[in-house]
Amino acid sequence: MSNRIHFINKITFIVIFMWTFIMSIASFILVYKNYEYADVLAKNEAVVSVKKDLAYRRWVASHGGVYVPITKKTPPNPYLSHIPNRDVNTTASQQLTLMNPAYTLSQMMSDYSELYGIKGHITSNILMNPKNKPDEWEEKQLRKIEITKKPAYVKAYIDGDEYFRYISPLVTQKSCLKCHAFQGYKVGDIRGGVSVSIPMKKYYQEALSLSMVNIVIIVIIYILGLILILFGRIKSKEFLNNKIKDYEQHIFSLVSIIEKRDSYTAGHTQRVADYSVEIAKEMGYDEEVINDMYRACMLHDIGKISTPDSILLKPGKLSELEYEIIKEHVVISYELLSKVDIYKNIAEIVRHHHEHYDGSGYPKGLKGSEIPILSQIMTVADAFDAMTTNRIYKARKSVEDAIIELQELSGKQFNEQIVKAASQALKEVEIKTTITQRPKTKLEKERFSYFYKDQVCDVYNSAYLEVVLTYNHMDEFNVKCINAIYLHNFNQYNKKHGWIEGDKFLKKFADSLLNINDGDLIFRIHGDDFILINKTHFEFQEYMEELNDVLEGSGISMTYKHYDIEEDDIKSIKDLEKLL
Questions:
Q1: CATH of domain 260-425
Q2: What is the C-alpha to C-alpha distance for residues 296 and 290, in angstroms, rounded to an integer?
Q3: In degrees, to the nearest 5, what angle opens at C-alpha 396 toward C-alphas 402 and 537?
Q4: Whether 477 contacts 438, CB under 8 Å
């Protein structure tokens, strides 16, 4: 599961990175285009300004110049002194002077610069008026346009401010020769240019304002995109989690079915998971690791699905061969889980939960740090549950005694640090004393009969009698009295009627005992004797007549004895046999 979540987080990170990258590039392009468009607008204004200047100059030239009153601002042009009638009197009090196209255009450009900050003038490499001397850039461009006859432009700084500079070639017209013929020009020659410099500040301010609007829009789109991405991540996680939960419900149901094969193991998986989680928390592991710990514990015995009932459900101690067979469940658990994508990360944990710290465990005999740390935690939790649970062949320990045993095995079977954490984490655990291997329901009794039922009479056998007598003192059974029923001359009955009829007779007699002793334990021992064990003292004498009816005509007789388990100190079959 964590691998899938990591994958979703990784994909989310990549998508967010790509989305951020795309939005950043979009922002950069928009800002760049805004400032690039500022250059376009400045160029357009420069072109329009030059065309306007040339149109104005053409109009003046078409009239041979303009006569204006002589003032301080418009004195006679000293460079036109060679022209006759440069100055004329219109009245006795008013005198006019001729302003040629270049001079009038210069005057207009000067006024325009004062009003709007646009610098412009007529310039030439062959000057009539020194005021029109080109600067370094204009001089260079004039040489180019004499060849190309095309305008030139550039962005450059003038007095610390950035301008868009534009220069258009000035072609000699016939009307120009009136003033410039002496310079050697002829019609069609490039005799200079009209230069204009547009301040960029206002365009950059507009570009900045537009860029800010664009960035705000992009930020809004970016945030909406992030919300959508994160929403998709949440939904993907929800879908994955729901899918995994559904899957795990099926798997956990399977585990529950496996556990229900044996009343004792029912709840074992959950208890081991709870104990492991508490130990992991005590050791400071984060939530993700603890989740893996829990899931591994819930599935650690899934391999027992392949263990035969004759071994899995056996209440007593296993033989050496049976033990070797049941050990295979860890390998089978690993093989099952490692094939499921969401369980691959916990398969190895499950595989090694029966390894011992000193290398004496199975299946690999790993030791120390070779064993996954979560497997080591599960090992301690598994052992703690086994110690604190009643078994047929072994009484449960108290929490205190179980922790003491863990500590005694610390550094041998268990990791010292984990035992130390477990001693703290599990010291307040409440153990349910109702967990037992003794059958309670009809279904459990039927399963139990596989091992402890007499196959002839359908009552319990002597093996189970030994268990009851041995562990009665620990309140596992809590029985008080014994009634021993002895059948005499049964061998003669067998000889006369055969074993099959003998078995039928024993079954009939046992059924009669079951009818008069409902709810308590009945055992067949020594072939033809029966033991009744009761939680309360049971007066058997009153049922003798009913049982004698069963014996009538068989040639078999019956006697019985009553014993008080506590007073007679009966703790085993040997103790009972001494009294029989």
A1: 1.10.3210.10
A2: 10
A3: 150
A4: yes
102 Cβ contact list (under 8 Å, min separation 6) = 57, 122, 128, 129, 132, 179
Confirm if 187 and 172 have CB atoms less than 8 A apart. Answer: yes
CB atoms under 10 Å from CB of 23, counted, come to 18
Q: What is the DSSP string of 138-174?
A: HHHHHHHHHHH-S-EEEEEEETTEEEEEEEEEEEPPG
Instruction: Round to whole Å and give the CA distance between 190 and 124.
Output: 9
Nearest in space to 462 (alpha carbons), one of 472, 454, 470: 454
Structural contact between residues 499 and 438, judged by C-beta atoms closer than 8 angstroms: no
- How many Cα atoms occupy the beta-carbon half-sphere of 565 within 13 Å? 25
The 10s digit of each residue's pLDDT in 423-473 is 999 998 888 766 666 666 666 666 666 678 888 888 888 888 887 887 776
The continuous run of DSSP H or E covering 563 comes out as strand 557-564
Instruction: Tokens 């007095």: give the residue.
Output: 159
Q: Is 55 helix (H, G, I), strand (E, B) or coil?
A: helix
pLDDT of residue 447: 63
**pLDDT tens digit sequence for 315-329:** 667 788 888 888 899
Q: State phi, psi for 535 to the nearest 5 degrees.
A: -75, -25
Give me the residues paired with residue 196 across strands: 120, 166
99 near 67, Cβ under 8 Å?
Answer: yes
Angle (deg, nearest 10), helices 490-497 and 499-516: 130
Tokens of 132: 């029109």
Averaged pLDDT, 59-85: 82
Domain borders along the chain are 2-65+100-205, 260-425, 453-579
Q: What is the CA radius of gyration of the chain?
A: 55
Six-digit token pair at 40? 């376009």
Element (H, E) at 33: helix 2-62
Whether residue 330 contacts residue 303, with contact meaning beta carbons closer than 8 Å, is answered with yes
The fold adopted by the segment(s) 2-65+100-205 is: Beta-Lactamase (3.30.450)
Domains 2-65+100-205 and 260-425 share a fold: no
The whole-model pTM stands at: 0.56
Q: Are 231 and 225 in contact (CB under 8 A)?
A: no
Residue appearing with tokens 């419900």: 249
Angstrom distances, CA of residue 480 to CA of 165, 477, 537: 118, 9, 6
Nearest to 383 by CA among 305, 300, 311: 300
Q: Give the span between the Cα atoms of 18 and 25, in whole angstroms.
A: 10
Query: Do residues 382 and 390 lie in contact, with contact meaning Cβ atoms separated by under 8 Å?
Result: no
Residue pair 120/48 in contact (Cβ under 8 Å)? The answer is: no
Residue 2: pLDDT over 60: no
| 142-152: pLDDT as tens digits | 899 888 989 99
Identity of the residue numbered 399:
V
Q: Which two tokens stand for residue 25?
A: 């590039």
Whether the Cβ atoms of residue 488 and residue 528 lie closer than 8 Å to each other = no
Class of domain 453-579: alpha beta
